Amino acid sequence: NLRLVLEVEVQAGDQSQSAHSLPGLISIIKRLSSTERPTFVRGDCDWGSDRVMSELEEINQDYLFKLKKSKNVKTLINKHHCLGGVLN
To answer: Is residue 36 part of a domain?
Structure first.
């Protein structure tokens, strides 16, 4: 399992959120050829916003983000937990 750091951009602590980092990430990905691109972009729940996912989908980049377990998400998990199968 190879992990590679392509570029590092250091920001102030209050500017490390996805909103500040997304333009740089998109720029890096666009510079890569299709064979050099990562299999997917991985991030924490801050990256799982509509804006981030939409921009990655526009450049056909797969992604995997953690899900923030809000009250509604917990309710959905509890509701479907005993049903079996996979949710779409």
So the answer is: yes
In a domain, 78, yes or no: yes
Nearest to 38 by CA among 84, 71, 7: 7
In-domain check, residue 28: yes
**Amino acid identity at 79:** K
Specify the pLDDT at position 56. 97
Q: Which domain holds residue 78?
A: 13-83
Between the two ends of the chain, the Cα-to-Cα distance in Å is 28
**Higher pLDDT pick, 78 / 35:** 35
- The rounded mean pLDDT for the chain is 84
Residues 6+ apart with CB under 8 A from 66: 43, 44, 45, 48
